[in-house]
Design brief:
Radius of gyration: 17 Å
Number of helices: 11
Largest sheet: 7 strands, mixed
Low-confidence stretches: none
Structural class: alpha/beta
Helix content: 40-55%
CATH superfamily: P-loop containing nucleotide triphosphate hydrolases
Strand order of the largest sheet: 3-4-2-5-1-6-7
CATH topology: Rossmann fold
CATH class: Alpha Beta
Number of domains: 1
Strand content: 5-15%
Shape: globular
Length: 254
C-alpha cells in the first residue's frame, strides 16, 4: 500500500506522522519505505539523524536521472538507504530538489515516481511519501503515485479553511490522473481534549461526513524529544500515550 501524507499548510506534522507510521509498520514486520520529497528534509533528518549529504543517493538524483537518457537506468531502490530501524528504508530528500523543480515540470515527468514505486511493489509492503507544504510538481507526483492520502489536521480555523481546497485538489488528481487515489483519512494532530475549539472543529468535520480517523493524536512535548534524538516514538518510548495512539491509528489503516 502506498500512502501520501499531504497538506498544503506547513507545520501540521506531515513529517512526524510519516516517520512514526512508517516506523510502526516496520516494527510490525512490514517491509517499509519512506520517500522524502520535501527539500527541507525533515523526514530525512528524523530517520537518519542528519541531512543527506550524498546527492547521488536521494530523491533529487532519482528525479535527475529521469531527465537523462540511459540504456541502463537505475531502479528506484538504488536511491534508498537503510535507517537504524530494521525493515525501514528511506529515499532521502536533498536541497537540490528545489533546483530541479522547474526542469521536471517543463519536461512532463509527473508519472515517473508512480512507475518507480509500482516497480517496487514486490519489495515493500508499505510506502509512505512525505510532501512539501505546497501543491507543486513533487506533491502532484506523490498524489499520482499513491493509493491513499492521509491529511494531517491541527485543529485551527486556518487548517479547516485549507482542508476544503486540499480535498478539491485530491479529487482533481483522482479524476485526471489516478483513479486508485482515495482519501484514507484526516489525522487530527496535537489534539487538546480540554479545549473547546478543537473539539468543536473536529466534530463539525465529522458532522460533514469527512473521514476523520481515530484516535486523535495528543499534543505532547515528548514528540520534540523524539525529533531531537532522531527516534520515532515507537523506539523512544513504546508505552507513552502518544505512541499508543499512533499505533492504534496505524492499525486502523489495515
Amino acid at each position: 500500500m502506498r500512502y501520501v501524507v499531504f497538506n498544503q499548510k506547513g507545520g501540521v506534522g506531515k513529517s512526524t506522522i510519516t516517520c512514526n507510521l512508517a516506523a510502526i509498520s516496520a516494527s510490525q514486520g512490514m517491509r517499509t519505505l519512506v520517500v522524502d520529497l520535501d527539500p527541507q528534509g525533515n523526514s530525512t533528518q528524523y530517520l537518519l539523524g542528519h541531512s543527506q549529504e550524498d546527492a547521488d543517493i536521494s530523491a533529487a538524483e532519482f528525479f535527475s536521472q529521469t531527465l537523462k537518457f540511459s540504456t541502463r537506468p537505475k531502479g528506484a531502490d538504488d536511491y534508498t538507504v537503510d535507517t537504524p530501524w530494521d525493515g525501514l528504508r528511506l529515499m532521502p530528500s536533498h536541497p537540490s530538489l528545489d533546483e530541479l523543480h522547474a526542469k521536471l515540470e517543463s519536461r512532463a515527468k509527473i508519472y515517473k515516481l508512480r512507475e518507480a514505486l509500482v516497480d517496487l511493489a514486490d519489495q515493500y509492503d508499505r510506502i509512505y511519501i512525505d510532501t512539501p507544504p505546497a501543491l507543486n510538481f513533487y506533491t502532484r507526483s506523490a498524489l499520482i503515485a499513491s493509493q491513499g492520502c492521509l491529511i494531517p489536521f491541527d485543529c485551527d480555523d486556518f487548517s479547516r479553511r485549507a482542508l476544503y481546497t486540499l480535498l478539491d485538489n485530491v479529487q482533481e488528481i483522482q479524476g485526471d490522473h489516478n483513479e486508485e487515489l482515495k482519501v484514507a483519512g484526516i489525522i487530527v494532530n496535537q489534539f487538546q481534549p480540554r479545549a473547546t475549539l478543537p473539539q468543536k472543529l473536529v466534530q463539525e468535520l465529522i458532522d460533514e461526513g469527512l473521514p476523520v480517523l481515530q484516535p486523535y493524536l495528543s499534543a505532547s512535548v515528548r514528540i520534540k524529544e523524539s525529533h531531537q534524538q532522531a527516534k520515532p516514538m515507537i523506539h523512544l518510548d513504546a508505552k507513552h500515550k502518544l505512541t499508543q495512539e499512533m499505533v492504534a491509528l496505524h492499525d486502523t489503516l489495515g
